[in-house]
Amino acid sequence: MKITVIGGGPGGLYFSILTKKAMPHWEINVYERNKPEDSFGFGVVFSDETLGEFLKRDMQSYELIRSKFAYWDDIIVARDGQEVSIAGNGFCGCSRKTLLKLLHQRCEEEGVKLHFEQNVDDLSQFKDSDIIVAADGIGSGIRTQFQNEFGTNIQLKSNRFVWMGSTKPLDAFTYFFRTTPYGIIVAHTYQYEEGMSTWIFECTDETWKNLQFEVENEADTVAKLSEIFKDELDGHSLITNKSHWRQFPHVTNKNWHHNNIVLLGDAKATAHFSIGSGTKLAMDCAIGLFDALMANPDNVQNTFQQYEKTRRNPVEMIQYAASVSLEWFENMNRYEKYPFYQFSFGCMTRSKKVTYENLRLRDQSYTDKVLQEFNQKHNNNTNAAAFSTFKLRGLELSNRIVMSSMGQYSANNGLVNNWHFQHYTSRAIGGLGLIVTEMTAVDANGRITLGCAGIYNEEQIAEWKKITDFVHENTSTKIGIQLGHSGRKGAVKKPWEGTNEPIDNAWELLSASAIAFNDKMAVPKEMTADDMQNVINQFANAAKNSEKAGFDMIELQAHHGFLLASFLSPLTNNRTDEFGGSLENRLRFPMQVFNAVRENFASEKPISVRISATDWAENGISQEDVLFIASEFKKAGADIINVSTGNTVENQNPKTGRMWQVPFSDMVRNSADIPTITAGTITDIDQINTIILSGKADLVALGKPLLLDPYFVRKAQAYEQITITDIPYQYQKGIENLYSSTISERKQTERMKKALKPKSNKK
After folding, report:
1. Please, what are the domains in the chain?
2. 483 and 555 in contact (C-beta within 8 Å)?
3. pTM of the predicted protein model
4. Where do the TM regions start and end (predicted)?
5. Exposed, middle or buried by CB within 10 Å (0-12, 13-18, 19+), for 302?
């Protein structure tokens, strides 16, 4: 077989080494546009896990790399002279030039032919090659020639960065943050060989412009950065190598192969340098391509298909983590106000791959500092942030875990019953800080289904009061009611009877505009002034009824495309009067409703507003819109924003996953400066602690995890060994058994995690 590799980066070279070593009779040629001694950038980073994989694949490459790398176990986060070291991370730095030199040596030892100063733009010269590996970097000329066939998409991220070096010695991978009058600049730094370290400076585009940097003016860039980071550089100079300011290109390809061409390395996919995975990603994919080729040595197309099948998901996971990590740096100016340890913790957990428990197992002295600072700030004394108290107006919650509003669709004529009684009271006994009821309609025609609860008559008030009385008399849990109106999404079947399908004899639907939710449902009536006043009166009456029913809080439903939300989104509001068009106009009616609720509910009791922070659809609500909406509700007296997303239109395309809605809560909380509730595939106490400690939300709401586990909180309290005083007398004999068995299981799990940690590759 004849293989041609275009591009002499680490990925292409490593694939060539592995393949030639396994198949010495195959012909492998590598064509590189630069000279052997050329290298752009300074150092590359590998983890213990990655080095361990190199050891298994090619001992010679591993030993060569290991003989030249600088190893560190710590990560340091420093901000304006204050710093903290976090142990147990296991990374190494290696000079990119040295790495390439070592891989060149291994290629020559195995018989791979290297061709330098070969700028390949015509593939016809390789028509006799069985495989052409396009490993020619981010700006891949081969990929560009066939960009339609590969389905290439390149998005330039907003931050600016510049790659430099220095003679400053470093003992650990260090993030140096410096606060300037124009925003924060961060230096991602690490030593990669004795006497040399990499310094990647990054800041927002706004900060970059305000500091008047120029893309290619290296002298000016060095002068300004040397002054800003003079304490960190400690008299050492910055070294340039085509050190021009750039914006990171996020590269994806729908297809990784075309005919006999296959993509590898940055030509295929890029991952932001903040998680140190660019070279790792290229070399991991080199291993994946090699494995696929060895499994299909006589079938190139099967090789490519297996390569893509086995590697696409890991690559996309790394890209996602890198994008989330980058997003933190894009918004780091938000966190300037944070106390130091919270700021450092947010930096360490930014990609969602690392959590509080991960860090605690690595370096408990660090997480103890983070928790101590949190407890001091919030005047608490707890082993876990989730079990700190939280106050909204006159309401104090015993912990920060909330039951999200989950429709039960089991009411009759809006009347809750025994099902609802057991549903809410069992979870209150389960120890939640706050329960938010299912959407409760302010009018019969505001229900989503015929099974939805209501609070628009005296009988309904009485049944709700049975529930709130039990909760207050037997538990420390607080209970809030979500008041809402279904709008254009009303009069549908219960979920188990059909999804968004209208019922027979549906009532007239109301909405901001006459736009049906889908082609099965009726076109709603565009609300008139009289309709609006009628609905305002219904919400005001519901607020009074909620007070009578004994609720501790009201949450206003202004999310998921229901009536109030239909006014907020430009996708569902095309009105031309004073309630449509500009955001101020679109917010007018929801704000009138909010004011009516606030005026008719006890002043010492809080009100939450639940909003959708994105429609997950083109031309939907913008980030700027969401921040304005949250700020206006705050001005009007809202105490907390429950940040949800989507369900505005049927053709949405949400990006789901672990803790997927948390970034939106982070945005609202830290840009609009108002407490938030977050939700969205949050499944364990570690995630909850991480979210709260990093300042991304004040309360964490769970939905599905509580459906079949009403005692989630009790188990979490046992896991964290929280002293509890609110277990009903009837159940107290169960405490000792739960706590002893849970702590035993936790210790066993932690031992397993430590045992599975990659072996250190330190010399």
Report:
1. 2-330 (3.50.50.60), 345-380 (no CATH), 400-739 (3.20.20.70)
2. yes
3. 0.91
4. none
5. middle
Coil, strand, or helix at residue 662?
helix
Residue 360 main-chain phi, psi, to 5 deg: -65, -40
Report the candidate in 482, 469, 461, 483 with the shortest Cα–Cα distance to residue 428.
Answer: 469
Residue type present at position 757: K
8 Å CB contact between 205 and 221: no
Cα separations (Å) of 637 from 142, 555, 595, 608?
A: 58, 13, 8, 9
Distance of CA 42 to the CA centre of its chain: 29
- The pLDDT of residue 402 is 98
Largest interatomic CA distance in the chain:
87
The answer to whether residues 478 and 560 touch, using CB atoms and an 8 Å cutoff, is no
Report helix, strand or coil for 421: helix
Torsion of CA 590, 592, 594, 597, to 10 degrees: -140
Radius of gyration of the chain (CA): 29
Q: Which residue has the tokens 């006999």?
A: 260
At 759 the pLDDT is 65
CB burial of residue 575 (10 Å; 0-12, 13-18, 19+): middle
Structure confidence at residue 447 (pLDDT):
98
Beta-carbon-side half-sphere exposure of residue 298 (alpha carbons within 13 Å): 0
Q: For tokens 């750039």, what's the residue?
A: 246
SS3 content of the chain, % helix, strand, coil (to 5): 45, 20, 35
pLDDT at residue 12, as a whole number = 95
Low-confidence ranges of the chain (pLDDT < 50): none
State which amino acid sits at residue 418.
N
Nearest by Cα to 256 from 230, 288, 280: 288
Q: Where does 241-391 have alpha helices with state H?
A: 278-295, 300-330, 340-348, 356-362, 364-378
Neighbours of 121 (CB within 10 A): 11
What pLDDT does residue 758 have?
63
Give phi and psi for 120, each to the nearest 5: -85, 120
**How many CB atoms lie under 10 A from the CB of residue 654?**
15
